Fold:
Amino acid sequence: MTLGVMDQHMGMEWGVIQEGWRKGPWTAEEDRLLIEYVKLNGEGRWNNVARLAGLKRNGKSCRLRWVNYLRPDLKRGQITPHEESIILELHARWGNRWSTIARSLPGRTDNEIKNYWRTHFKKKVKSSSENPEKSRARLLRRQQFQQQQQQLHQLHLQDQIGLKKILSLLDESDNKVPTFTQLRQEIMYPSAPDEQGLLYSMINGYATVPEASNEDILWDGLWNLDDNITERANYQHNLATTFY
DNA sequence: AATGATACCAACCGCTTTGTA
DNA sequence: TTACAAAGCGGTTGGTATCAT
Structure:
């Protein structure tokens, strides 16, 4: 969309200055100025951008443009099926807490995830409520899938060293079940440095995807820890009865 | 080819939270 | 403690692209 076209739209005047600030789509030149500003000054203090970079944009607009579009660590391209499954699961857990969900998807923004959800799932959720039979069937398939996943996890968690680590976390927290955050913390910053690889494999089992990056594997594994860590701890108890 | 429906996404708005003086 | 500014967040809007009829 060009600014020329935008400017012609009725009602809201895009790309024009309102109360001293430009609004509407960003031009390549504005992007360049903003990138240059961040290079020199870092992120933050967005209200200084107008003065220091010569942009006629308010701080809010600059921050948004940077966070959602210009940041170099943004992942471009379509949401992958893996990311989609994460979005679905995290949304089921946290609802519309897009920024929280986005933290589990490196390189994706809350805005991107929000848009993706709205276009792909909101309608589906709505339509499923209009068709209870299909909805039930989907739920059943989902439950079966989750059961399979759980069984896989039980197998993976038979890894003796992995169990030892979880047990130690239990011990350290007075037999309270370690939280998701605790486990993640332990993986990101292991108390014993040589345990990082171990924890990777513990959480992921050995079913790593060859083309997946370490980071993908890590996040996949983190996700698979699931929201109910208590159940994971119960695996320890279940192992004997289930597989021995 | 024309038209309408839908998907996609950038950007805005208003409210809330956080930081700081 | 308080007031203000900055940053963060979620909801919404509206334009373009694409697909279906």
Summary: Confidence is low (pLDDT under 50) at residues 1-14, 129-244 of chain A. Chain A has 13 helices and two strands. The CA atoms of residues 79 and 116 of chain A lie 8 Å apart.
